[in-house]
Amino acid sequence: MYYIDPHIHMVSRVTDDYETLAKMGCVGMSEPAFWAGFDRSSADSFRDYFRQLTDFEPRRAAAYGISHFTWICINAKEAENVPLARDVIKLIPEFLDLPGVLGIGEIGLNKNTRNESIVFFEQAELAERLGQQILIHTPHLDDKYKGTRMILDMLADLSGLDRTRVLVDHVEEHTIRHVLEQGYWAGMTLYPVSKCTPERAVDMVEMCGPERLLVNSAGDWGPSKPTAVPDFILAMRRRGHPESLIRRVVYENPVTFFSQSRNFKFTPPELTAAESSAAKSSNGNGLLLAAPQEKMAAKL
Amino acid sequence: MPIPLDAPEVLNRELPEIRARLLQLAAALDRMDRATGSPDVDPRRQKIREALAILLESGPDRAERMQLLFSLPYDPEWKIKFDVAAKK
User: Does residue A40 contact residue A15 with C-beta atoms inside 8 Å?
Assistant: First the structure.
């Protein structure tokens, strides 16, 4: 089954992972800007990171037939340094029109501090003002419930925000309903120890339904599993769920959410070159349908 | 959306893992008891007791209740205390 991983940090992964993901059916991914494991010393360091996200990673992914998309922001952990965060926020607009940039993210909270809240507000307001989609990180473990509620409070203050263009990520059993009931998209992250298992993610699909629900690996530089979405697919099958439901969660839902971004140009893998060619002339759904061979021809 | 399996099927599938996890939990508690010192005054020990009590309750939302038990409380007045707000 083809799938899209809507949240994965490929800058932290080796090229072999791209090959493995392609073999397992991954045809697209989105990579939010995040914490590198250490605090960066200047805005220029972020500029280089944003170049890596918008230039190098898409080419590395394309070599394996995977469409790579990204999100730009300063993450919650480095938002504690407000002056640096504001310097980075000034950089964001110059990257938003680049191919494959879906919006601003992953903004959010980490320890639910005042400074993190200030920087979250400023980036969410920027997204609202520029008509950008938003991808949101919610905190881990005992901070998650409080932080998720705080994030939803801040979003509610933005009257011009289209909630169907906002993804609140890393939801778990105690936060998923708050997110979905307020009209946002929710992402379940399959991550050892600190987030969710494939089996619990299947439970949440059963309890909340597939509407506005995504599943991701959040594979990064820590203990994580970039092939976690196929684990979810297997868990859904073992539970007896139909292929149509699985496909909706792991493929159709990400396409629907991402299609709201003007920079989402994606070739559905099931299209033949002939269908693609025909569709190029009558594209009614906002997707750019280019021949798959064109993508495969990309070289590093 | 209903789960496609019936309860006996779920039990059949899950029993080996439930047994293994219960044993792991029992062994971890034993380890604490065998070690020197007493964690009884540690509030985290009390949380563990409350979590075990949730497991013995009925209902379809034990996972959610367990999550809330291990969560920091949310204060609806937090924005006033932090003095933060949207600019407009």
Answer: no
The distance in angstroms from the start CA to the end CA of chain A is: 27
Query: What domains are there in chain A, each with its CATH number?
Result: 3-266 (3.20.20.140)
Distance CA(A241)–CA(A234), nearest Å, equals 10
Is the distance from CB of A71 to CB of A135 less than 8 angstroms? Answer: yes
Which residue in the set A121, A158, A209 is minimally distant from B1, CB to CB? Answer: A209
Q: Do B33 and B51 lie in a common domain?
A: no
A150 contacts on B by Cβ (under 8 Å): 74, 78
CA distance B32 to B47: 15
Question: Number of folded domains in chain B?
Answer: 2
CB A155 within 8 A of CB A138: no
Residues B5 and B44 in one domain: no
Q: Which residues contact A192 (CB under 8 A, 6 or more apart)?
A: A223, A224, A225
| Contact list, A143 vs chain B (CB under 8 Å) | 72
Interface pTM, i.e. ipTM: 0.93
Between CA A3 and CA A254 the distance in angstroms is 9
* A142 with B64: Cβ contact below 8 A: no
Report the C-alpha gap between A25 and A9 in whole angstroms: 18
* Size of the A and B interface in Cβ pairs below 8 Å: 68
Residues with Cβ within 8 Å of residue B74, at least 6 apart in sequence: A145, A146, A149, A150
* Full residue range of the structural domain in which residue B29 is found: 1-37
- Asked if residue B12 and residue B22 are part of one domain, the reply reads yes
Which of A114, A149, A203 lies closest to B74 in CB terms?
A: A149
- For residues B63-86, one letter each, b for 16 or more C-beta atoms within 10 angstroms of the residue's C-beta and e for the rest, the string is bbbbbeebbeebeeebbeebebeb
Q: What is the pLDDT of residues A135-188, one digit of tens each?
A: 999 999 999 999 999 999 999 999 999 999 999 999 999 999 999 999 999 999
Q: Please give the biggest Cα pair distance in chain A.
A: 55
| pLDDT digit string, tens, across residues A3-54 | 999 999 999 999 999 999 999 999 999 999 999 999 999 999 999 999 999 9
